[in-house]
Amino acid sequence: MLYELAGDSQVLKEFFISERVGKYHRLSTDHSDKEAKLAALISASSMFGGDAVLLEGFSSWKKDEKKATVELLSNLPASVDVFVDGELGSKHSGERVVFSLPKPWEEEKWIDHGLKIAGAMKLKASRGSLRTLLHRIGQNEFRLLRELEKLCNLTDSVTEDLVKKYVSQDLEVEVEALAFEFLENGRSFLQGLDSSRMAFPFFSTVLARISIEIGVVKEHRKSPLPLNWKEIKELSELTGISSSRVSRIVGFTFSGSKEKRSDLSELLSFERLFVLLSKLQKLDEDIKGGKIDQSIAFFLLNDPSYK
Predict the structure, then answer these.
(1) Are strands 95-98 and 52-55 parallel, antiparallel or unpaired?
(2) CB atoms near residue 267 (< 10 Å)
(3) CATH number belonging to domain 107-166
(4) Which residues are CB-neighbours of 87 under 8 A, at least 6 positions away?
(5) Pairing mode, strands 2-6 and 24-27
(6) What are phi and psi of 83, to 5 degrees?
(7) Are β-strands 2-6 and 82-85 bridged in parallel, bridged antiparallel, or unpaired?
């Protein structure tokens, strides 16, 4: 049986495969002679009842490799299972299944996604527990899977209280939120800051990275008008910055969302970004040179007289 696994949720694809077959061989982008290896695996599986085959990252294969593979799969014996991670095109007789990640602003759909993963693990979980978990670790399905696997060792029914007790707040998720708060609101970001817990060099590194990404988006953005999701995806592909980060930078929100975001690519000029990056570099040098304490650096970041 041929399966075309479309979409970008790798975790759900893996569960889909494991529910249907035991062991399986992987052929990925970095393998050489893919056509010959696939032909050999199909032949062995057909004759001796061997393992299934997964064509990993098929969309990234070379054009000639994909063409040869599609031709080979057109004569796939019914007894052999081949799973294609990517788009095969219209000329195939297999079953097409789509596993898509929710968009960054679709919080409820991310909770649904987490419930699907928990269900595939035979694990019960409440919506509240998944909401809290996602707030602590961010929208990362592999991290979500790992945390659920840890909780699975404790219980077969995950609650919000268990998540709060055993899952720590991801520091990078917290720091990124604080960095965006600083870029949008300036001095008020200090209200949510625990400088004793957060090292300034780490915060500075994250803030600098986001500031550089804002500059890259400004450089490649063609229009100051609000962007739709298609344009955000195109800008992501053009810049190499994730679509979720681009959407955050340009202030994109779903039409039904109550959250208000600033368009940082319009709010911050290239000059302001340059001044900020220069100040971060000076603060880093002064901390290393023992001139200032890390906790003071957060306040100096908002001090216009510090240069």
Answers:
(1) unpaired
(2) 13
(3) 1.10.8
(4) 4, 6, 58, 59
(5) unpaired
(6) -110, 125
(7) parallel
Mean pLDDT (the chain, rounded): 89
The domain spans of the chain are 2-98, 107-166, 173-300
Beta bridge partners of 98: 6
Tell me the pTM: 0.74
Residue 210 neighbours by CB distance under 10 Å: 20
HEC-encoded secondary structure of 20-86? CCCCEEEECCCCCCHHHHHHHHHHHHHHHCCCEEEECCHHHCCHHHHHHHHHHHCCCCCCCCEEEEC
Over residues 97-107, the mean pLDDT reads: 90
Q: Which 8-state DSSP code applies to residue 189?
A: G
pLDDT band at 173 (very low <50, low <70, confident <90, very high): confident
CB 9 within 8 A of CB 100: yes
Calpha distance 165→121 (Å, rounded): 21
What 8-state DSSP symbol labels residue 96? E
Quick: pLDDT tens for 238-294: 999 998 899 999 998 765 556 678 899 999 999 999 999 999 999 999 999 999 988
Fold of 173-300: Zinc Finger, Delta Prime; domain 3 (1.20.272)
H or E stretch covering 175: helix 171-185
Q: How far apart are CA 214 and CA 97, in angstroms?
A: 36
The pairing of beta strand 157-158 with beta strand 52-55: unpaired
Closest CA to 33 of 5, 68, 60, 57: 68
